[in-house]
Specification:
GO terms for molecular function: dioxygenase activity; nitronate monooxygenase activity. With about 350 residues, this protein is α/β, with parallel strands linked by helices. Helix content is about 45%, strand content about 15%. The chain has 15 helices and 11 strands. The longest helix is centred in the N-terminal third of the chain and has 20 residues. The radius of gyration is 20 Å and the shape is globular. The two termini are about 20 Å apart.
Length: about 350
């Protein structure tokens, strides 16, 4: 069930609380708004470039405007478009312009007043998140009726503790079944979530803290399991990649729907980044994606340079088969493209059915 805490923070959410992950380049204002309209909590992505000329920040402004218009038209928020926007914004915080957050990002957030900010991937040993959270708190004091919450995505108990010491209101406990970027070494939600819950109970009982489970959740039974483990709600990422409103490529949607046996059909590797000449993520992180031809070639001894050349030629020839498709181990449970609202409502119904069935155990 949606915890009283999440309902208090996000009044438009319904039980059980399900959120759409802020997947960079895949989510948008329409998807986020449709998730929120249906009783979940939608997110948009703010990217990692916080320079004044950042195209990501210009896009963020546009996506939040779109989300507010849709929600106002639906009656989810006041028609005058005032008040807190029941949408979240996710940021990747490892970039060289992270220190410009207060200068360039905060004005966009103040303009739109999103309900929650989600932070992920600081440089190891930095004070980036502590500084960002402090700047956000200071800025919010000057905006009437805006009390944004801060979630930090973590993959270990130690990282969760650090996030709470930095001032986070909520922890997104990401297990290794998740698609996309994550801790290179970690555990699944079945052990991660209860251990973080125990840590919160023992060390931070003096303040309200939300715990959200993420990683491999693509069916309502997984949401029910997350709640049983001690989570207040759950995040779905891969499931929403195939939503009608998502910005995903059609080839990626098709690949996800055709996939099965997620523990075999997906793989964690830094190759997913390096194949695209992307070396920006800090060392503690890798990512999970579909086990496509590049992974199979690597296993067969193909060099990185040759693999990169194969991808280049495929892209030039219009062949998407070697594209990196970020996806979690729940891919085998995803069988069709649906509107976001239907995905959310179906998952909620599955979760409630699972909970009711357990009452007979």
């Amino acid at each position: 069930m949606t915890s009283n805490l999440l309902k208090q923070w996000f009044p438009t959410t319904e039980a059980p609380a399900i959120m759409c992950a802020p997947m960079f380049l895949s989510v948008n204002g329409t998807l986020a708004a449709e998730v929120t309209k249906a009783g979940g909590l939608g997110f948009v992505a703010g990217g990692w470039d916080f320079s004044p000329a950042s195209p990501y920040l210009a896009d963020l402004d546009a996506q939040l405007t779109t989300a507010r218009e849709i929600l106002a038209e639906a009656g989810t928020i006041p028609a005058d478009r005032s008040g807190t926007l029941p949408i979240g914004v996710g940021f990747l915080t490892f970039g060289p312009t992270a220190a410009r957050f207060a200068e360039t990002v905060l004005p966009v957030l103040i303009k739109h007043k999103p309900a929650v900010i989600w932070l992920f991937v600081p440089q190891p040993g930095s004070t980036t998140h502590r500084d960002m959270i402090a700047a956000l708190r200071d800025a919010a004091k000057g905006v009437e009726g805006w009390e944004p919450k801060v979630f930090v995505q973590t993959g270990t108990v130690a990282a969760a503790r650090e996030a709470l010491d930095d001032g986070a209101d909520g922890i997104v406990a990401q297990g290794v079944d998740a698609g996309g970027h994550q801790w290179a070494q970690g555990s699944g939600v079945i052990s991660l979530v209860p251990e973080i819950r125990a840590m919160i109970r023992e060390e931070y009982s003096d303040r309200p803290i939300a715990l959200i489970a993420a990683g491999g959740i693509a069916h309502g039974s997984s949401v029910a399991a997350a709640l049983a483990l001690g989570a207040d709600g759950a995040v779905m990422g891969t499931r929403f990649l195939v939503a009608e409103e998502a910005s995903s490529k059609q080839s990626a949607r098709d690949a996800i729907i055709k996939s099965s046996d997620g523990g075999v059909g997906t793989v964690k590797s830094t190759l997913h980044d390096h194949i695209e000449h992307r070396y920006v993520f800090p060392a503690p992180f890798d990512g999970r994606a579909l086990a496509g031809p590049s992974i199979l070639d690597e296993r067969a001894g193909v060099s990185l340079a040759e693999n990169q050349e194969k991808l280049k030629l495929a892209v030039e020839g219009g062949d998407p088969s070697r594209d990196v498709v970020w996806a979690g181990t729940g891919v085998g449970l995803i069988t069709e493209v649906q509107p976001a609202a239907q995905i959310l409502q179906k998952t909620m119904a599955e979760a409630l059915e699972s909970i009711r069935a357990l009452r007979n155990v």
